[in-house]
Design brief:
The complex is a heterodimer of chains A (265) and B (287).
Chain A lengths: L2 H28 L17 H6 L5 H31 L6 H9 L6 H14 L5 H26 L4 H8 L4 H12 L1 H16 L5 H4 L7 H11 L3 H24 L2 H7 L2
Helix pairs in contact in A: 1-12, 3-4, 3-6, 3-9, 6-9, 7-8
Chain B lengths: L1 H4 L3 H41 E2 L2 E2 L2 H8 L1 H34 L2 H16 L2 H11 L5 H8 L13 H24 L4 H9 L4 H29 L3 H6 L7 H10 L4 H27 L3
Antiparallel strand pairs in B: 1-2
Helix pairs in contact in B: 2-13, 3-4, 3-13, 4-8, 4-10, 5-8, 6-8, 8-10, 9-10, 10-13, 12-13
The chains are: A mainly alpha (265), B mainly alpha (287).
């Protein structure tokens, strides 16, 4: 690369990094605002908005609901998606390529359309259990993330390792558990992380399936913003952000972010 | 003859068993995909064309036959195209720096991509409403720099919408491009230079074709995400800029017009399918 091109690409990369971090920095700064309006730059610092998070209307049930749905849908997707990825990558499945494309396709489909389609569908078959409807819908949201990462991970996995373990006296499930699962641990971590975040942050699908008493956290947060935006929301967002930083830090230690960028394409 | 023919039955049986296992492994995902994705979408198509008196195209006529809803479709496409072009213009050069970075610098840069990606869309859109307010940070900075004298109205304008959308969808553009650029062998460019190509020629005829798969993946992803974005237009521009996504939400959540909402949904879905099909086709062609 010419010197000009190198300098230009670095300028763009740094501008991009600053631009991406700007909204996050603003949210964090606004959460310490001493006044109810978002006066930036801050004239002082206060932690009182953090104390108010717990008193937000309907906050705890929504957080609990979002955590339950995100964890359960991620675990179910990890199991189903990994099994499907094994079937696809071992090449014994007729139409494996088409099936793989189909499995990943919900990623590119508008979430809102999936939301209304499921709403119509559940109504048509008389399925009215909100909690279960949310879980089933989030399975469709999370499965493509798991399938994509696990297909990529398993495509590089040497299945003869499992055979070797069996030759050495392992049972088949034992071989899978003691050889395949540890080798694929990074893929599982990435798939799980993306899947959990996709579910935890989902708004367009959940909004059509939630009801007055069963609202996920993103629905609740948009409602707070539209009704009465005050720094409490910024405080809550900052805490969620902090949680994410911890998750990313652990992932970087365990897997390396550059690997996540590669396999998560 | 016999010792050649004898082993034959055994592999056949084991192939059958392996195939059966493969079917069993694929079944749960297949059921989720068929029962909770394909079937609901088919039903949605049905709802959009079935009225109280049987088959009807009244919903589609309303969408494509009135100036207002043609404007809505145009708004969605415009948001998608603008967001895609701007994110591409930023991501493509930046991905080369990212690919050259090593060690701590790389970790920090990648973290700045993953952190916003992992942060809620609602949180980021909310942050932009704070940033772009008339007494917000952006205006204060512009005034302090002497670029403007009085605060300009930014929130609830198309500029705010596009800035927010670009910010939120940028990681989806740069990650696929980075994945390809990072694997680019620098010797290709050197070979082109050795063979007498100018840097510009080498870039256009070697680097661009080699990185095209990443660009296509990023463009397809960002376009299909931004064309159907809901939270971003709702918070950053509102009623002034109705899109297909906000029309769908309104039809279902406020107006109770499922047939019309379903039709708008089918149009949005069709756009997404065209983008996916096009990108798959382009991606397969030899660069």
């Amino acid at each position: 690369m010419t010197r000009f091109a190198v300098v230009f690409s670095w300028v763009m990369a740094i501008a991009l990094a600053l631009f991406l971090l700007a909204p996050l920095a603003v949210i964090a700064a606004a959460s310490f605002s001493p006044t109810p309006v978002f006066d930036l730059p801050l004239t002082g610092a206060s932690l009182r908005w953090y104390g108010r998070i717990a008193r937000l209307d309907g906050f705890w049930p929504s957080l609990w609901l979002s955590l339950q749905i995100a964890l359960l849908s991620t675990m179910l997707s990890l199991v189903c998606g990994t099994l499907a990825a094994i079937a696809i990558t071992r090449g014994k499945l007729p139409g494996a390529g088409v099936f793989a494309t189909a499995l990943v396709s919900p990623l590119m489909m508008p979430g809102l359309v999936l939301g209304i389609a499921l709403l119509q569908y559940f109504r048509a078959i008389g399925f009215t259990a909100t909690w279960s409807a949310l879980l089933l819908a989030h399975l469709v949201v999370t499965l493509p993330y798991v399938a994509r990462t696990m297909i990529a991970g398993l495509a590089r996995f040497d299945f003869t390792l499992v055979e070797a373990a069996r030759t050495l006296g392992c049972t088949y499930p034992g071989g899978v558990l003691r050889v395949m699962v540890p080798v694929l641990a990074p893929s599982f971590l990435i798939a799980g992380l993306f899947s959990f975040l996709a579910s935890f942050d989902n708004y367009p699908v959940s909004i059509f399936l939630a009801d007055v008493r069963t609202k996920t956290l993103p629905i609740r947060m948009l409602q707070y913003i539209e009704e009465a935006p005050d720094p409490t929301l910024a405080a809550l967002s900052t805490l969620i952000l902090l949680g994410t930083v911890v998750l990313l830090f652990i992932s970087d230690r365990a897997v390396g972010l550059h690997r996540m960028a590669g396999t998560a394409d | 003859m016999t010792d050649v023919a004898l082993p034959a039955p055994a592999p056949t049986a084991s192939v059958d068993r392996e195939r059966l296992t493969a079917f069993g492994f694929a079944l749960p995902s297949f059921l989720i995909l068929a029962g909770l994705f394909a079937l609901p979408l088919v039903l949605l198509l049905g709802v959009s064309v079935i009225g109280p008196d049987g088959l009807t195209f009244v919903n589609y006529r309303r969408l494509f036959g009135t100036a207002f809803y043609l404007g809505v479709i145009w708004n969605s496409l415009r948001l998608g195209v603008l967001t895609t072009l701007i994110t591409l213009a930023i991501s493509y050069p930046a991905s080369f720096a990212l690919a050259r970075a090593r060690g701590a610098v790389r970790s920090v840069l990648l973290a700045t991509l993953f952190l916003p990606l992992a942060a809620s869309v609602i949180v980021k859109a909310f942050a932009w409403t704070i940033l772009l307010r008339s007494d917000g940070v952006v205006n204060a900075t512009l005034i302090a720099l002497g670029i403007i004298e009085d605060p300009i109205r930014m929130i609830f304008t198309e500029t705010a919408l596009v800035v927010g959308a670009v910010n939120i969808f940028l990681p989806f553009m740069i990650l696929p491009i980075y994945a390809v650029v990072a694997q680019l062998d620098p010797r290709y460019a050197e070979a082109a230079a050795t063979l007498g190509a100018s840097p510009v020629t080498a870039f256009c005829r070697v680097i661009v074709p080699l990185t095209l798969p990443g660009v296509i993946a990023g463009v397809a992803l960002v376009f299909s995400l931004s064309v159907s974005a809901y939270v971003v237009p709702t918070l950053l521009i509102g009623e002034k800029y109705p899109t297909l996504a906000t029309t769908i939400a309104k039809a279902y959540l406020l107006a109770r017009e499922p047939g019309f909402g379903a039709a708008a949904g089918v149009v949005l879905l069709t756009i997404a399918i065209i983008v996916v099909a096009l990108s798959a086709r382009l991606g397969r062609e030899p660069a």
